[in-house]
Amino acid sequence: MVRNHRSRYTVHGRIALGVTAILLVSLSYVLLTANITALSYAVERAHEQRTQLELQSARLDDQIATMTSDDRLAAVAAKLGMVEPTQFLRVTIAQAAWSPERPLAFLGNGSSPGR
CA 83 → CA 28, 66, 71, 86, distances in Å? Predict the structure, then answer.
């Protein structure tokens, strides 16, 4: 009788274990599918954002090209009363020589040998 009682619980236990395993596999499948779907939406949003940023970059490049065009700069300069220079000056600046005794002399720290 005890043996019959145990075998009945063993069968119920195996059935419960089988149902639990099937439920775990099903739940795992549903969770993985949901995760893949969420990642797909994230990738699509990233593609949309990339497309919008590329369009914005193209618009800004066009705007920069317009703002820096020679005709526009000439018109702004004329509006401000600027004129083309008639004389040009050339300034020559002597370069400080580097020496191991004074390695920072080329930075103009006031301790050059000419002073």
Answer: 76, 22, 14, 9
**pTM higher than 0.70:** no
Q: Rounded to an integer, what distance in angstroms lies between the CA atom of residue 36 and that of residue 64?
A: 41
Chain centre to alpha carbon of residue 84 = 43
Q: Tokens for 2?
A: 């005890």
Range of the domain at 62: 2-107
Angle ∠(53,56,62) on CA atoms, nearest 5: 140
Contacts of 66 (CB under 8 A, 6+ apart): 72
3-state SS assignment for residue 74: helix
Domain count, the chain: 1
| pLDDT above 90 coverage of the chain, percent | 60
Q: Is residue 114 part of a domain?
A: no
Over 50: is that where the pLDDT of 80 sits?
A: yes
- The 3-state DSSP class for residue 90 equals coil
Q: What is the DSSP string of 11-55?
A: HHHHHHHHHHHHHHHHHHHHHHHHHHHHHHHHHHHHHHHHHHHHH
